[in-house]
Amino acid sequence: MSKPALHSWRPPSIDALLRATEGQDLITVYGRKAATEELRAAVDFCRTNNEGNEEQIFGSAALALAKRKVKSIKPVINLTGSVLHTNLGRAPLSDAALSAMNNAAGFINLEYDLKRGARGERDSHVATWLMRLTGAEAGIAVNNNAAAVMAVLNSLSRGKEAIISRGELVEIGGSFRMPEVMARAGVKLREVGATNRTHLSDYANAISNKTGIIVRVRPSNFAIQGFTSSVAEKDLAALAHEHGIPFYDELGAGALVDLRRWGLPYERTVQEALLDGADIVSFSGDKLMGGPQAGLIVGRKDLVAKISRNPLKRAIRLDKITLAALEATLALYDNDETLAESLPTFRYLSRKGPEIREIAETLAAVLSSYVPEWKVEVASCKSQIGSGALPVDVLDSFAVTFQHRNSSTKASGGKLKKLALQFRNLPTPVIGRIHEEKFWLDCRCLDNVSAIKANVDRSNFK
Ligand SMILES: *Cc1c(COP(=O)(O)O)cnc(C)c1O
User: Which end of the chain has fewer CB atoms within 10 angstroms, the N or the C?
Assistant: First the structure.
């Protein structure tokens, strides 16, 4: 056959393609709608290039259809050294939470009281746990802590002033700006003190009949260094109560246990915040609590009820799957001595150097044969808790490092980026970080070295 002349290529009809055996096969596997779309796209492509036979059209449509089926969301192996990595989904969930989510997939007693056979309360599934674990009079859950802040401020201080220290007007992860959140909540911001120093008298002088609430935000993803002074929560609570104003402790990270038991740095707990007199406390579910994305609000019964009644609450309530995961996570805290085994977040955070070093050495031995151009070594490093919790590098860890054998410092940048991409391109992507002319895989969150080997073997890692 001679090559068709320019503009002479005649597209086959889509109907004919769909009727052919190959077309029928595509319909069986992928459905008529998707098969039609991708055959049309393949024909369009051929039309643009003015060539292409049926075999090529079916081939490229089949490839495109297979690609459509690959899920966008996939598990990754987090070797970044940041345990609660916001971009990687924060807290990895426990087995207990996983099975609870499975159980909740069908019909459940979400808002149904099985005893009375009547409408029940969505929050009842977690309220008892929140009260039991924190000592609060009441507790509810919403979509995340940002939503919790909105709900608390809007319910308790709308049209009034919220007094907050200038040093606490933090920005979290670039998208949570306290002043803007307050404005959207319909609350007037009343800043007191200087960036690094705020005294009790600053708060006292700001109180008027316009005051609706006193807020303390735990500065989380930054630490003001040097000479700082802030007012103790106890004193703020006492001042607020003297004037009949609620005191709101916005904790952010939300530890339910003292982290020092695992040699981790001190982090204020929800229980402490309540004991210090906070009327309302809010915190995230997927940071140090180790659960699903959620915002937890605990505190005085009348105030929590007021937040529950706010129409805003309906817009930010939790779905049944998350609620199930949350209940299961909270239940693990009943036996807090086993948390380092039952909750992945604490398993990773509490891992000791020697154990991580052993994992790193095994991984280095496995990987070195795949990357002969790279010097593969084990090096000590510092992991981070992540998610703005406890901002300083604190956890002693070990990593596998990759340094190019014969690249000048200048040339190694591109090679490092390429290596990092190769790891991200694995069937189960492995995420590391580039630092000081090396590629680092921090092994704190690595459970299974042989899974990485299988992962690499399945790819053409070169
Ligand atoms: C993380 C954080 C938030 C936002 O919480 P999300 O659960 O991510 O919505 C708000 N305030 C503080 C202090 C935080 O640390």
Answer: N
Alpha carbon of 21 to ligand 1 centroid (Å): 56
What residues does ligand 1 touch, defined as CB less than 6 Å away?
Answer: 144-146, 172, 176, 217-218, 220, 250, 252-253, 284, 295, 388
Tokens 């280095």 correspond to what residue?
364
Amino acid at 125: H
pLDDT of residue 147: 96
Q: Domain range for residue 53? A: 6-69
Sequence length of the chain is 462
Q: Ligand 1 atom closest to Cα of 149? A: 10
Q: Whole-angstrom Cα distance, residue 269 to residue 148?
A: 17
Whether residues 239 and 358 fall in one domain: no
Q: Are 283 and 306 part of one and the same domain?
A: yes
Indicate the top mutation candidate among 90, 220, 387 to test ligand 1's pocket, ranked by most ligand atoms within 8 A of CB. Answer: 220
Residue 125 in domain: yes
Number of domains in the chain: 3
Nearest to 193 by CA among 176, 215, 173: 215
**Model pLDDT, residue 224:** 47
Q: What is the pLDDT of residue 9?
A: 82
Which ligand 1 atom minimizes the distance to the CA of 220? 15
Domain co-membership, 232 together with 380: no
Ligand 1: residue whose CA is nearest its atom 2: 252
One domain for residues 284 and 163: yes
Residues of the chain with pLDDT under 50: 1, 221-225
SS3 for 69?
A: helix
